[in-house]
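Supplementary Text 2. Reproducibility record for the structural model of the 172-residue chain.

All settings were left at their defaults, and a single model was retained for analysis rather than an ensemble. We include the record here because the model underlies the residue-level annotations in Supplementary Table 4.
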Amino acid sequence: MKIIQIVDKLLVHCEEFLSALAMLSMCLVVFAAVVCRYALALPFASGEEIARYLMVWCIFLGIIGATRKKAHVRVEAFVDFLPAAPRRFVIFISELITTVAFCALFYLALELIGRSMGPLAQKTPLTRLPYWYMYVSLALGFGLSALRSLQLIVKEFIPHKIKAVDSEEAGG
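Retained model, structure tokens:
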């Protein structure tokens, strides 16, 4: 169990680091584009393209953190009026549907990546980067969100191991 907690903390740090790195990079690229355009009177058109793709990375990395923190938008008005047992069941079904949706989107993202690779791969207009570089953010975001969503289901709805009382501990 200790190993799972260590891996979880490592994964959280990686998620947060990549999100911060993507955001910082995007801000720096936009700042450089503004300086080039207004201070140097030089267009930096590829900067706008790079910033756009970094924004996509920020979004899909942010989905992971939002899933982990249960920060996605939900309509809870109906659920709040339910008694405890049905409320728990509805929340479980909702979490299960969310996990299945993330898994389906992860699969579709992998298919998209597969179709966008190869010698005839479509490239971005200015930087000439293959589009699959950007599509990897979809697979990463949806795949890790599926994992985080499944983790929430296990944490909230699967009974935790009950400590057994050995006969030796009981004094026997």
